[in-house]
Amino acid sequence: MKTLLVSSALAMLATLFTPAHASEHNGAAMAATCAGCHGTHGKLRNQEFVPLAGMPEAEFIRAMRDYKSGKRQSTLMGNLAQGFSDRDVQAMARYFARVK
Amino acid sequence: MLNRRDFIKAGAALACAAALPARAADTAAHVVIIGGGVGGATAAKYLKLANPKLRVTVIEANRVYVRGYGSSEVVTGHATMADLNVSYDALHQRYGIHFIFDTVVGFDPDKRQVRTAGRQTIAYDKLIVSPGISLQYSAIPGYSAALAETRAPSGWIPGTQTALLAQQLKAMRQGGTFVLIAPPKPYRCPPGPYERAALVTEWMRKHNPTGKLVILDPKDDFVTDASMQLGWHRLYGYNIPADFMKGMPADVKNSGKPAPIEWVRARDGGTVSKIDPKSLTVTFAGGSIKADVLNVIPPMKAGKLAFDMGLVDASGWCPIERRTFASSLHPDVFVIGDASIADVMPKSGYSANNQAKITAFAVANLLAGRAPDEPKWKNVCYALAGSDYGLFVADVFRLKDNKIVQISGHRYMSLDATPTQIRLGAAYQQAWLKTFTEDCFA
Q1: Rounded to a whole number, what is the distance in angstroms from the first to the last CA of chain A?
Q2: Strand, coil or helix: what is B350?
Q3: CATH number for the segment(s) B137-299
Q4: Distance from the CA of B143 to the CA of which of B210, B334, B355, B420 falls in 20 to 30 A?
């Protein structure tokens, strides 16, 4: 009985720390760092910046890759893109694509 | 005023039986935030976004927030004092954040309670403190808070001094000298003194064409560095020092003629030793100068509340564990924003906003029994060399060996930026004032 309790508690812990969960939450946290310009959840009323909410994953990933390589000209996105790995970009892309 | 020990005791002694425990078994955790500036407001909002069930209370002294970012535009009449006002209504109405407009006068870290001047005792599960800065007026001999309020405004925390500085600029005699004393590191808003200098120079070109501005600086470089000086050169004929010429576009040639803006850095004797409060004569290592308008941006330390609560170390700033911004000095307390020791992260509104979010997510995770995520933070500061000449500093940060390091390489507008990029930078600066305020407060 005791063993059973312990193992179910561990199973619960394991669920909380599954990689899928961690990376998804991390995507949300990293995406939140963009919100100072691109709006909370990437939603914008202001038209100067690109709204990121609902952007298809591939489009977000391509834009970040092109900013990083310098293929796409920018004011400051080129600098910022240097700070994110492919995995980071993927996690943010997944997050923004799901925002309704 | 209570000293620190009394302040902390006041929290303990006055925690009366009426104070309820923070959390009964079946109710949500209570996160209390002290300070409703950029850091505190953003933390409150993002805690609710992370977990709407959390109870979130903000304790703030003022009913309306007066934003510091963009406040130099009031000095030159591009914005009014009223434009700086930001309401807390949206945070309350849209997110159910509870506001207590009061001043904290007691703190009991063992019982996890704070006490206000209005005699409320408030219990917390986690406490986030965003105390901002205090200006060390008396650090410069001859300068004082009284002088700042009457004759030589600082205007670095927006308010009556900002309005006074705007009046003084307008009233300055033709051909007068505007002296700006820049602060030593670390200080709030690194590009700010140099942006203010640029905007004042631009204003004088129109309204006081023989007037000039002199920056006296205890440093040899500043944030935005060559990119700002290139803007000054193009717009105002500023002479760029030889050691900043590296990488400048080929057409940049100093005229050698006196320019309306001059930067006297430490190595050229820019460090100020005293101010004569009667004549507004400033003595610095390289000489002395009589100011017609004197704008002093004094040295800074963490906000007074951080001292009262025992959250600062010998440096005058708040030591933290970088991953979550948990105080190194009190358990269950987090310190975010300008007051925290965040290594290479600038003391800026954007940094405070990003720290607030990462800490809000970390606190929500900790309260749910989860480990905090691996953090990444960003900083983006827009700055103007003129109304249509935009610059920036942009960084991404992460943890390395429990310190915050910059990982994004080049930080500033490149020196070969096109006119379009420069104009866009200025347009983004104005747009950012709106989007950023919304992200923090709405």
Answers
A1: 46
A2: helix
A3: 3.50.50.60
A4: B210
Interatomic CA distance for residues B129 and B33, integer angstroms: 6
Say if residues A39 and A72 touch (Cβ distance below 8 Å): no
Equal CATH topology for B4-132+303-373 and B137-299: yes
Optimal mutation site among B224, B408, B418, B422, interface A, most CBs of chain A within 10 A: B408
Q: Do A33 and B432 touch (CB under 8 A)?
A: no
In 3D space, the residue among B51, B67, B56, B54 whose CA is nearest the CA of residue B439 turns out to be B67
Is the predicted pLDDT of residue B418 greater than 70, yes or no? yes
Q: At residue B12, does pLDDT exceed 60? A: no
Read off the pLDDT of residues B271-288 as tens digits, 9 standing for 90 and up.
Answer: 999 999 999 999 999 999
Domain B4-132+303-373 superfamily per CATH:
FAD/NAD(P)-binding domain (3.50.50.60)
State chain B's mean pLDDT as an integer. Answer: 94
Closest approach of chain A CAs to the CA of B57, in angstroms? Answer: 21
Task: Domain ranges for chain B, please list them.
Answer: 4-132+303-373, 137-299
pTM assigned to the model = 0.92
Compute the C-alpha angle B417/B378/B394, nearest 5°.
15
pLDDT of amino acid A25 = 56
Q: Which of B371, B377, B431 sits opposite A33 (nearest CB)?
A: B377
**Which CATH number, 1.10.760.10, 3.40.50.20, 3.40.50.300, 3.30.470.20, labels domain A25-98?**
1.10.760.10
Distance CA A86, CA A60 (A): 11
Residues of chain B positioned with their CB less than 8 A from the CB of A44: 435
β partners of residue B405: B398
Chain A residues 45-64 with a CB less than 8 Å from chain B = 46, 48-49
Question: Is A25 within 8 Å of B396 when comparing Cβ atoms?
Answer: no
Lowest-confidence region among B21-30, B230-239, B423-432? B21-30
